[in-house]
Amino acid sequence: MRNLLEFLAKYNHWFVFIILEVIGLVLLFQYNNYQGSVWFSSANVVSGKLYGWSSEAAAFFSLRGVNEELTRRNLYLEQQVRILSDSLVKMGRDSVALSQSQLSVLKQYRLIPAKVVSNTVNKADNFITIDKGAADGVHKDMGVACGSGVVGIVYMVSTHYSVVIPVLSLQSNIGCAIQGRGYFGVLHWAGGAVDMAYVDDIPRHAHFKLYEKVVTSGYSSIFPPGILVGTIKHVYNSADGLSYRLKVQLSTDFGKLRDVCVIDNAPMEERLQLLRAAQDSLTSKQQ
Questions:
Q1: In this structure, which of 7, 181, 242, 265 has its CB flanked by the most CB atoms within 10 Å?
Q2: Rounded to an integer, what distance in angstroms lies between the CA atom of residue 175 and that of residue 215?
Q3: 257 is a domain residue
Q4: Residue 29 falls inside a structural domain
Q5: Cα distance from N-terminal residue to C-terminal residue, the chain
Q6: Are 218 and 227 in contact (CB under 8 A)?
C-alpha cells in the first residue's frame, strides 16, 4: 500500500494532466456540434472495423462446423438423386409416393460428422483414424462415407477415436449394386491404383452399360442403399466364367479425405435382427 501511495505522489502531476485532458475532451465534443460529429463518425469507423474483424474471426473458427454440415448435406442429396433416378426407371409406379416414402426412411439415419486425423493409401491394408468414438455414439461395423461416396467400415473404437477399414484395404468387402439395375455384387480392392476397385459376382444375365454408377446395395446393416461407390470403367469375365467382374473408378479421393460421416444405420440393423430371429424360429420348428 505504501509503495502505491509513493507512486501516486511521485507521478501525481501526470494523473492530474490526464484527468484534465479527459474532462476537456468531453466538454469539447459534448458542447461543439462539429467536433461532436467528427468524434461520432470516427467512433463508428473504429467500431465498424472492430466488428468486421470479430465477424471474420468467428467465420474462420466456424469453418469446421460448416464443413461437417456440408458433408451431411452431400450424403443426403446423393440419396435424393438415387431416389429420383429409381422413380424414373420404375415408370409403372407412383414416383411421387415412392420418393416420399424412401425420403422418410432416409431421415431415420443419424449421421455423425468426423474429421480424419490419420490416413494411409500406400499399403496393402490401409487404415483411417477419425476423431469420433464411443462417447459420440460410434461403434464397430458402422459405415463411413463422405460427400463424394463410400469410405469404409468402422473396425475398432475407443472413447474418442475410431479406426476405419477403408475401401483401399485387402480386408474390405462391401455389398453394392448397379444403380437403377438391381444387380448386386461385392466390392473389393486388389491393391495398386488408389482410385480403382472391383465388383465381383455380377450375374451373367445382367444388362448394364459402361459408365453407369455403382452404389451401396443396402443388403446389410452397415450402409443404407444408394450411397455412391463409383463408375463402371471396364467389364471382365470371372475366373470361372459364371459371372462378370466390374472394374470401378472410385468416387472418393482417399488422398484428399478430410471430412467424413459415420452412418448410424439403426433402422436397417433392427430389421435384419428381426429377420434373423424369424429365420431361427423357422429352423427350430423344422427340427
A1: 265
A2: 9
A3: yes
A4: no
A5: 95
A6: no
Q: On the CB side of 223, how many CA atoms lie within 13 Å of its CA?
A: 28
Tell me the pLDDT tens digit for each residue of 129-150: 999 999 999 999 899 998 888 9
- Those residues whose C-beta lies under 8 Å from the C-beta of residue 199, and which sit 6 or more positions away, are 176, 185, 186, 187, 214, 245, 246, 248
Domain-located, residue 45: no
Q: What three-state secondary structure class fits 69?
A: helix
Say what angle helices 12-31 and 33-61 make with each other, to 10 degrees: 100
Read off the CATH number of the domain in which 240 is found. 2.40.10.350
- Beta carbons within 10 angstroms of residue 219's beta carbon: 14
Is 124 in a helix, a strand, or coil? coil
CB 131 within 8 A of CB 114: yes
165 in Cβ contact with 171 (< 8 Å): yes
Q: Count of domains in the chain?
A: 1
Nearest-angstrom CA–CA distance, 147 and 77: 9
CB distance 155 to 164 below 8 Å: yes
pLDDT in tens, 230-277: 999 999 998 888 889 999 999 999 988 888 889 887 766 666 666 667
For the entire predicted model, the pTM comes to 0.63
Domain residue limits at 124:
111-269
Instruction: Report phi then psi at 286, rounded to 5.
Output: -65, -30
Are the CB atoms for 223 and 216 separated by under 8 Å? Answer: yes
